[in-house]
Amino acid sequence: MTLKGKLIIDSVLLEKQAIEELHNKSYYGRVKGGTLEISLPESAFLIYMEKIRVEFEEREIGFEDFFLMASSILKNFELLYIVYKDLRERGYYVQPGVTGFRVYPRGGHPGKTPAEFFVFVTSERIPLLISQLRLHLETVENLKKRLVVAIVDEDSDITYYEVKKASPSGTNVSGLNKGLSKASLLEDRVMVWNQDASLALQKDGFFGKPMDEGHLQLSLIESCYLLRKGILEIENRNHELLDFEMFVKTASSIESDFMIKYAVYETLRNNGLVPKTGFKFGTHFRVYKKIDDMIKLPHSDYLVHAVEQSHVFSLQQLSRAVRLANSVRKEMIYGTVDSRVDFFIIGRMRL
Questions:
Q1: All domains of the chain, ordered by start, with CATH?
Q2: With 90 as the cut, is the pLDDT of residue 267 above it?
Q3: What are the φ/ψ torsions at residue 85 (nearest 5 degrees)?
Q4: Cα 34 from Cα 15, distance rounded (Å)
């Protein structure tokens, strides 16, 4: 038997019988008085499944007309419908939620179990603001749920990503003394000339890379960290000592996002991690939780990219970064820099 309903503003109201047939058995919609209110994506799916018929202004509208009307009422309706239909056909119970949909665990349903994750739906063409993602994450975590981003591409294929906060930490502790040595700032890196200091920095702190036996070259990021910690004194080629502000000014003229990267690097180092350049992976850093010997480096644990809180993701770039990290068995972490540094992991999710 096909149930009847009416399109009212931005939802469909179904007759009382639908409460038993659709809500109590299959968990569609929300009971509202003596009727069942269902959302536009739910309604389109039920019309498609020939479980309901919908009227608008005293005439019945089919799937095509309903879809066209719904897409003019609800922003990104077609994306929401594609994801809703996919989740339902995978066997999940789905209800509207604060970020898009609430999805219940397999074997669970409304009234029996809490929702497992919330799904935020977007298109591959829509830029994603870090601030927007962070807001969704904080909202979902306050409800003690997981956040999933469903990205719909131009072929209507869906890729699901889980986003979660991270607190990366390691076990590397630097035993380096303050005032270890002087070093020279060259064009875009720093050179340590003293052989003993070079050996200590590499062996005890896992900094830099030997240029040859006895001479160690450091990146700008590493050098800035060591300068701020008082481990190194750094001078320019005219043998003038540079303080932290002078060094940062010079480094920022070489690399415009230097301080964004530095804030993330410093936080990682202070948390017992060893960040090294992630250039080969297309990220700012590859990061090690534990290093015993720089000669025999283990595989890195994370790829970390530093971004400002105002950063806007290209979802194609995000997809490439996560896929690459997964292919080399690492986690893709983004460090967001505002008044503090926050980390979150983005990874593919298989439903």
A1: 1-73 (3.40.1170.20), 173-255 (3.40.1170.20)
A2: yes
A3: -60, -40
A4: 8
166-195 pLDDT, tens digit each: 999 999 877 788 888 999 999 999 999 999
Q: Supply the DSSP string of 311-333, one letter for each residue.
A: -EE-HHHHHHHHHHHHHTT-EEE
Cα separation of 324 and 330, whole Å?
9
Instruction: Kindly write down the DSSP assignment for every residue of 194-222, as one continuous string.
Output: -HHHHHHHHHHH---EEEETTEEEE-HHH
Residue 215, judged by CB atoms within 10 A of its CB (0-12, 13-18, 19+), counts as middle
Whether the CB-CB separation of 176 and 205 falls below 8 Å is answered with yes
**Helical axes 244-254 vs 220-228, angle rounded to 10°:** 170
Compute φ and ψ for 53, nearest 5 degrees. -120, 140
Residue 273, amino acid:
L
8 Å CB contact between 302 and 262: no
Q: How confident is the model at residue 120 (pLDDT cuts 50, 70, 90)?
A: very high
Q: Is 279 exposed, middle or buried (0-12, 13-18, 19+ CB in 10 A)?
A: exposed
Arithmetic mean of pLDDT over the chain: 93
State the Cα–Cα distance between residues 13 and 58, nearest whole angstrom.
Answer: 14
Active site residue ranges: 288, 299, 330
Distances in Å between the Cα of 300 and the Cα atoms of 63, 274, 322 are 52, 9, 15
**Alpha-carbon distances, residue 138 vs 87, 98, 150, 314 (angstroms):** 23, 12, 17, 21
Distances (CA, A) of 249 to 242, 243, 244, 288: 10, 10, 9, 28
Q: What is the DSSP letter of 184?
A: E
Total length of the chain? 351
Distances from the Cα of 287 to the Cα of 47, 133, 295, 303, angstroms = 51, 24, 16, 6
Closest by CA to 205, choosing from 175, 170, 168, 169, is 175
